[in-house]
Amino acid sequence: MAGFRSLARQVRDPGCDVALRRYSLRKCLERFAPYGHRATWDHLCRRHGFGHEDRDLDPARLVAALDEVEEARAVWLAYERRFAERRRREKRLGLRSPGPVDDWHRRTWGGNGVARCADPAVHPRLPLAEALRRLITALEAGPGGRCPVCAGARFVWRWDGGDEARGPVCAGCGVLVPAPVLSAEALAAARPGAGRADARAGALAAVG
After folding, report:
1. Would the pTM count as exceeding 0.70?
2. SS3 170
3. What 8-state DSSP symbol labels residue 165?
4. Domain extents for the chain?
5. What is d(CA 163, CA 156) in angstroms, rounded to the nearest whole number?
6. Rounded to an integer, what distance in angstroms lies between the CA atom of residue 12 and that of residue 69?
7. Cβ neighbours of residue 15 under 8 Å, at least 6 residues apart?
8. Helix then strand then coil, % of the chain, to nearest 5
9. Distance between CA atoms of 22 and 55, rounded to whole angstroms?
10. What pLDDT digit, counting tens, does each position of 127-176 carry?
């Protein structure tokens, strides 16, 4: 099975027909798609001006889309190298129990779906690399009360039956935010029933 780099070479190869180059770009997203495959493809189509099903399109647009994916992949791989180096240092010091970020990272190794978007048509407008830089900054900084990508403060809990689609989704940019980057208060507010609980508390306060 072809790897990311060999597929990227096909996207750039002017000797290949456009349909194959487009197919190779789609296959690249099976190896690295920060928002998930469908959402990342939708993002690239919108940013680079081609349709989801276009077969005869400007190759320059495909290459520009690939450039964006490669830049984001470089950002994420650099973070993974730092992560691996940190874990090696911790293990040498006898710190073998992983923290919440480590548990989350283990499930996203390779970068596929690290900023997963629950709705493939709703995702950040930022370049992929910038979205990942913001996410990484939050992962390294510790829990906060806002979305690391768009700074939104409202979240809804999403669960589609699988762990990869469960958690707090930013109501602004659509990213399924890693739980370790959110404070306990933000997570509690996003969970099912939080709004009803707040309403009941307000009603009790009014009565009292």
Report:
1. yes
2. strand
3. G
4. 4-207
5. 16
6. 13
7. none
8. 55, 5, 35
9. 7
10. 999 999 999 999 889 899 999 999 999 999 987 655 556 789 999 999 99
